[in-house]
Every structure is written in C-alpha cells, then in structure tokens.
Amino acid sequence: MTTPKRHLHEPGHVSVIIHGADEETVTAFARALAVCHNVTDPSSPWRVPGQPGVHVQVYGHTDPGEESDPVTCCAAVPEDCQWRLPS
User: Fold this and answer.
1) H-type helices in 1-87, by residue range?
2) Sign of CA dihedral 49, 51, 52, 57
3) What is the pLDDT of residues 2-24, one digit of tens each?
4) Which residues have a Cβ under 8 Å from the Cβ of 84 and sit 6 or more positions away?
5) What is the DSSP letter of 5?
6) 3-state secondary structure of 31
7) Which of 41, 48, 52, 79 reaches 20 to 30 Å from 87, CA-CA?
8) What is the pTM of this model?
9) Alpha carbons 1 and 59: distance in angstroms, whole number
10) Which of 64, 59, 65 is nearest to 42 (CA)?
11) In Å, how far are 2, 4, 7, 47, 72 from 43, measured between CA atoms?
C-alpha cells in the first residue's frame, strides 16, 4: 500500500494519525494495522512540544488489499504483538 498525500483527495484514501504514550506502542500498533489492512508502514514518530505522547501517521485505502482473509492476517501478526487475537 502506497498512498502519498497527493491521493488523499480521491475516494477511499485516508490518512490516520495514531497518538500514544510512547514510540514503541504507536509503531507496534501501526505495524499491526499494516499487516492485515491496506495500510502503509508508519511514518517516523514525532512529538508535539508541550504535549504528552508521540504520533505516527499511516495512509490507507478502503479496498481490502492483498491480505483480506482474516485467517491469513492473524497468522501474519507476530506472536508477541499485544494486539494479536487469540488463536
């Protein structure tokens, strides 16, 4: 999935900013999304001065993409991922 900003005016394309307490959490969550959905890998984490937490950004599309089968998706999520669904 590659959705540069210039495509955001097209139907079905989105930009999502994930905000969390630390870089490890937001990056892991964004990568878990990318494994099972038509979503890019996360941007480099950034902080906003004077505000708590850290952000990453992903781009996505409403088309299911290549990994649309839930069984295949769940199997692709690393075992140590805290958002992995129980088998």
Assistant:
1) 23-36, 70-76
2) negative
3) 445 666 778 888 899 999 999 99
4) 32, 74, 77, 78
5) G
6) helix
7) 41
8) 0.70
9) 8
10) 59
11) 12, 12, 17, 12, 25
